């Protein structure tokens, strides 16, 4: 039997092409996009303004399917986290972070990750598989449905006076619940390029979610050739996980640095900026006690990125069992941030959210996989930091 078309994962162009093969005019694809993504409808028979024979055809050949929810937790601060079953004993996470001026959804792109960053619990789980585009978009679809149903701390949707200046590009009430999407969940989006690209196109399309390019952020460990492709295909806001000011330390923390060292990465950031929707790159920097958090590291970092318009986002390390790393004390993080600010760079410290529900990267999914002993096997393969070179 032929498998059904996964409507959630088809970019607007791909959906128009499929509808064309079924003898339908392009406007039918737009109608379908609006039903599925804007109204959250998964039952074709309810799509009342589609011709009956088209609805029947869709019911036979297509489906709107999301991964099943394994767990759904709401933290005391309103952060909500879903654990989704993507089969084969793999789970992925999606996190919603409500703030006064925006609602941000953090999505996953892979089950596990092949980059094996030293400080990342997803990296410690190893790589299982790429998510398909419908599994990526499905996270947004599911989250919107759940938030509409349950409200966000009793407020649905954000009142227009809560929106900040960036919201001049007015959005429909439904998408205001989630105004921003960050590709900062499990996995390396640029090592799952095609599915990430299709998902981006759906998120940005006016007939689907209509999100602003400035409000969709891809975060990458630094897959240089794919940064260049994203620049051409679909430039959105870019965050780069730098984490170290020199190659010898970055080689240990973010192993992909051995392939694409810092200067090559910074060159690609500069190229990206000429088409990016924002005029800076965000550099993420996880603060690890005694590893990358000294005054000298801050000075080196300022010097290293001098040629790139950028902001820094310092991330307090989320410790996990077996990491062998500690988080920098709060005072050290503040001091590091101050030095970067004094050096002329806008620097923020990421607030930890949803601590009570383990909203830290990969933690809940790690726990699920641990039952199969996978984590323990991978942990044994992890090389201690001091010996990693
Ligand atoms: N693979 C992409 C996106 C997912 S990770 C990337 O690496 O950029 C999103 C962010 O969380 C990255 O900056 C990553 O370095 C950071 N991160 C991973 N594990 C962490 C941990 N245990 N504590 C704090 N930040 C972590
Ligand atoms: Fe993968 Fe990002 Fe984790 Fe590194 S930090 S292992 S790239 S998910």
Explain the overall architecture.
The protein is an alpha/beta fold. It has 2 domains: 5-63, DNA polymerase, domain 1 (Orthogonal Bundle); 69-388, Aldolase class I (TIM Barrel, Alpha-Beta Barrel), CATH 3.20.20. The chain is built from 14 helices and 14 strands. The chain has helices at residues 12-21, 26-38, 52-61, 121-125, 133-150, 173-177, 193-204, 224-233, 247-253, 262-273, 295-304, 330-342, 363-370, 374-381; strands spanning 5-6, 62-63, 69-74, 80-85, 91-98, 103-106, 110-112, 127-130, 180-183, 216-220, 237-241, 281-287, 310-316, 347-349. Strands 3-4-5-6-9-10-11-12-13-14 form a 10-stranded mixed beta sheet, sandwiched between helices. Strands 1-2 form a two-stranded parallel ribbon. α7 (193-204) links the parallel β9 (180-183) and β10. Mean pLDDT is 88; it is low at 154-173 and 370-389. Bound molecules: S-adenosyl-L-homocysteine and iron/sulfur cluster. Residues 117, 119-121, 184, 188, 219-221, 241, 284, 286, 315, 317-318, 361 line the site of S-adenosyl-L-homocysteine (SAH).
